[in-house]
């Protein structure tokens, strides 16, 4: 019984390390990320692609209300996986940091600098009692000094830089797909195709425009660009991934 009580103490205590050096609440926060629908980030030679699986749970839900891709600044976009409310708090924090940097220094914030501001904020919630870690992972992508940059934030508060990554549900399968098909020399359109191919690979080989979110930040304009459903449908048609909505109805 005593051993079990000690185990529960480590389990519940956010700031307490277990004897084997683990913070259980941070690990549970990572599990919460896995329960969120997938998000993908891809760095190409001329920009960054963010793509997300929105998976609308009901035909009565307005798909525009499912927000998984966000604009942090003119040159930075963020995709999330995990608890939506936690993501919104971190997005708001990121936007404030971008504005503060612009006002204080008269220049846009760097993608790496913004990511580390976010992860420093996340880390505080793993070290202070009375609060829980953020149950969300973010993909932060943008242009810095004319170069595309792509980062991940982890519930522990650790930043990672990637060429391509997936977070959320099916991460293992998506990461394997990206590792197999990623090309360092790929251009932005190729990156969009790869992101959509990866999402389709875990969704029966096809996608509906209403269930996909897509955005890019290209080197030339350094501008965050969100695709509407018509543009997403065009991309899905180009890549032969467009699902037949009538077939979906027949299955039901």
What is the arithmetic mean of pLDDT? 91
CATH superfamily: Aminohydrolase, N-terminal nucleophile (Ntn) domain
Oligomer: single chain
Approximate helicity band: 25-40%
Please state how the strands of the largest beta sheet are arranged side by side: 8-1-2-9-10
Rg, Cα atoms, Å:
19 Å
Family: Belongs to the peptidase T1A family.
InterPro entries: Ntn_hydrolases_N, Proteasome_alpha, Proteasome_alpha-type, Proteasome_asu_arc, Proteasome_asu_N, Proteasome_sua/b
Domain Proteasome alpha-type subunits: 10-32
Function: Component of the proteasome core, a large protease complex with broad specificity involved in protein degradation.
Explain this structure.
- Helix 3 (84-105) packs across helix 4 (111-124) and helix 5 (171-181) runs antiparallel to helix 6 (188-201).
- The chain has a single domain (24-251), classed as Aminohydrolase, N-terminal nucleophile (Ntn) domain (Glutamine Phosphoribosylpyrophosphate, subunit 1, domain 1, 4-Layer Sandwich).
- It has eight helices and ten strands.
- With 252 residues, the chain is α+β, with helices and mostly antiparallel strands.
- The chain has helices at residues 2-12, 24-34, 84-105, 111-124, 171-181, 188-201, 229-238, 245-251, and strands at residues 39-44, 47-53, 69-73, 76-82, 136-144, 147-153, 159-161, 164-167, 212-218, 224-226.
- The strands form two sheets. Strands 8-1-2-9-10 form a five-stranded antiparallel sheet. The chain has a five-stranded antiparallel sheet with strand order 3-4-5-6-7.
- A hairpin with a 2-residue loop joins strand 3 (69-73) and strand 4 (76-82).
């Amino acid at each position: 019984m005593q051993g079990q009580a000690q185990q529960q103490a480590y389990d519940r205590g956010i700031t307490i390390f277990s004897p084997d050096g683990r913070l259980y609440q941070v690990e549970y926060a990572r599990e919460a990320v896995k329960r969120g629908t997938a998000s993908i980030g891809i760095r190409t030679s001329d920009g960054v692609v963010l793509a997300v699986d929105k998976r609308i749970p009901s035909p009565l839900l307005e798909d525009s209300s499912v927000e998984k891709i966000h604009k942090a600044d003119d040159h930075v976009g963020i995709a999330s996986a995990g608890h939506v409310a936690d993501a919104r708090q971190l997005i708001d924090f990121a936007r404030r940091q971008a504005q503060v940097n612009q006002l204080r220094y008269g220049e846009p914030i760097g993608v790496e600098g913004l990511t580390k501001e976010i992860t420093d904020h996340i880390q505080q919630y793993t070290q202070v009692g009375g609060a829980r870690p953020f149950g969300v992972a973010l993909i932060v992508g943008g242009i810095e000094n004319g170069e595309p940059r792509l980062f991940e934030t982890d519930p522990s508060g650790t930043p990672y830089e990637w060429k391509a990554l997936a977070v959320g549900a099916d991460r293992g399968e998506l990461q394997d797909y990206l590792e197999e098909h990623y090309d360092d020399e790929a251009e932005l359109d190729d990156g969009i195709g790869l992101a959509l191919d990866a999402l389709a690979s875990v969704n029966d080989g096809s996608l509906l425009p209403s269930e996909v979110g897509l955005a890019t930040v290209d080197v030339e304009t350094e501008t965050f660009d969100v695709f509407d459903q018509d543009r997403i449908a065009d991309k899905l048609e180009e890549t032969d991934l467009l699902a037949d909505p009538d077939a979906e109805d027949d299955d039901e």
